[in-house]
Q: What sequence folds into this?
């Protein structure tokens, strides 16, 4: 018990929270970038431009089917060989963005597919051009349908950020490892706190997603 | 190219471990996942609560934490586990929570009239579940389960973190030995794609072939998490 009280000193907790801050920061940056890139790629894949859509679709499939850990190692250790040297934080965000963009591209595409095709036809019949109909009628409805899927993708992104501890990104797991590396007695207390912090953040988000889901459904 | 030939035995060894770990975890998490899905839909409040807590807890913490728990914490109190055992156990538990959600969505998308009709014809709850509801749910659940298996193969790379000698681990070794990090990770990537890409295309094909109704779409949305 003594271990727990000592381990949760203000200094240690502040250090852990700093780590949580980095985790959230990296996740937020990555999801923001990949939302933009993913929407763009998803739209290209949906619109079936000859060759371009096929090639982009194949690249998306390749990235989706690789482990995130491999992409992290690749951007941090592999790219410098090609002359691209990125810092720890940049390469984490780049790796997460590459992976999440591919994931979001698929979410965007299936979101557009889920909009009733009558919407597009009706908009075209009312004299809108394809682009007008797409951006004013179809996409707004598609994004509304996508929100729950995007939130759950964000949750798995927060969890996946812990993988970046391997390339020494100073996020939550890494900070916990630093603390219990100094004192083995803190190992169990740190694990309990770590699990709790991840759980609270992710569960809160999944709760938000469920509320959004219900409100969208109504 | 020479990397493929030179490190072939090492890569093959890693591939075997990755595939073995994924298959064990798949079977284990299918059993555990179905069990907890049945608990979740149970009318008994206590059983329902146990199912929900299990699923919500393991869905919302990183896989790496579970793996480290088995690799670092468990040896403090009980037997020491090898990296392979710790990693595979973690994979099983983590994946089972997702599979439980998929299976639950599948069961609940079967028309409740099926269960009622079976019960009215004199079957017990377990018989009706076993012979009427579950077989219908299976078809809805297979494409998302396939996607879970793809995720499982990808996630098995955590074995590298706990010294599990899997494909990713071998890749790191090769990268360290040859200093050709770029090439090594590309080679490892190709090996992962050999495992995951055909499976994920096959599942897309199945999904397209069987596509009907919204229950399926809900289940596949769950699988994407």
A:
């Amino acid at each position: 018990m003594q271990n727990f009280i000592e381990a949760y000193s203000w200094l240690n907790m502040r250090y852990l929270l700093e780590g949580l801050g980095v985790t959230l920061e990296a996740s937020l940056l990555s999801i923001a970038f990949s939302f933009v890139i993913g929407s763009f790629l998803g739209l290209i894949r949906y619109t079936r431009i000859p060759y371009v859509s096929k090639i982009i679709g194949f690249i998306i499939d390749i990235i989706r089917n690789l482990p995130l850990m491999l992409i992290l190692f690749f951007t941090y250790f592999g790219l410098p060989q090609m002359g691209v040297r990125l810092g720890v934080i940049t390469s984490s965000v780049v790796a997460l963005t590459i992976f999440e963009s591919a994931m979001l591209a698929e979410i965007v595409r299936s979101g557009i597919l889920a909009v009733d095709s009558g919407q597009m036809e009706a908009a075209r019949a009312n004299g809108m051009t394809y682009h007008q109909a797409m951006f004013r009628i179809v996409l707004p409805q598609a994004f509304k349908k996508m929100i729950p899927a995007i939130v759950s993708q964000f949750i798995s992104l927060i969890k996946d950020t812990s993988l970046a501890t391997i390339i020494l990104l100073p996020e939550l797991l890494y900070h916990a490892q630093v603390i219990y590396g100094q004192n083995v007695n803190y190992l169990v207390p740190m694990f309990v706190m770590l699990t709790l912090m991840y759980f609270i953040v992710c569960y809160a988000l999944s709760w938000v997603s469920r509320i959004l889901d219900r409100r969208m459904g109504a | 190219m020479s990397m493929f030939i030179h490190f072939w035995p090492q890569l093959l060894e890693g591939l075997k471990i990755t595939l073995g770990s994924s298959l064990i975890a798949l079977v284990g998490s299918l059993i555990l996942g179905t069990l907890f899905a049945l608990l979740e839909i149970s009318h008994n409040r206590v059983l329902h609560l146990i199912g929900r807590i299990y699923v919500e807890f393991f869905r919302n913490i990183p896989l790496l934490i579970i793996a480290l728990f088995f690799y670092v914490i468990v040896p403090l109190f009980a037997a020491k586990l090898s990296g392979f055992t710790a990693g595979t156990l973690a994979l099983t538990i983590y994946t089972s929570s997702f599979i439980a959600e998929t299976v639950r969505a599948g069961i609940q998308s079967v028309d409740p009239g099926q269960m009622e009709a079976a019960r009215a014809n004199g079957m017990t709850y377990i018989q009706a579940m076993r012979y009427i509801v579950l077989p219908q749910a299976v078809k809805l659940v297979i494409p998302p389960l396939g996607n879970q298996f793809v995720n499982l193969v990808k996630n098995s790379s955590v074995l590298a973190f706990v010294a599990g000698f899997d494909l990713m681990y071998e890749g790191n070794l090769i990268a360290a030995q040859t200093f050709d990090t770029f090439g090594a990770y590309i080679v490892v990537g190709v090996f992962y794609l050999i495992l995951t890409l055909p499976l994920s295309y096959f599942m897309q094909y199945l999904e397209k072939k069987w596509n009907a109704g919204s229950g399926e779409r809900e289940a596949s949305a769950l699988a994407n998490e």
Summary: The longest helix of chain B spans residues 8-40. Chain B touches chain A at residues 56-57, 59-65, 68-69, 72-73, 76, 150, 154-158, 160-161, 168, 171-172, 175, 180-182, 184-186, 188-189, 192-193, 196-197, 200-201, 217, 221, 224-225 (CB under 8 Å).
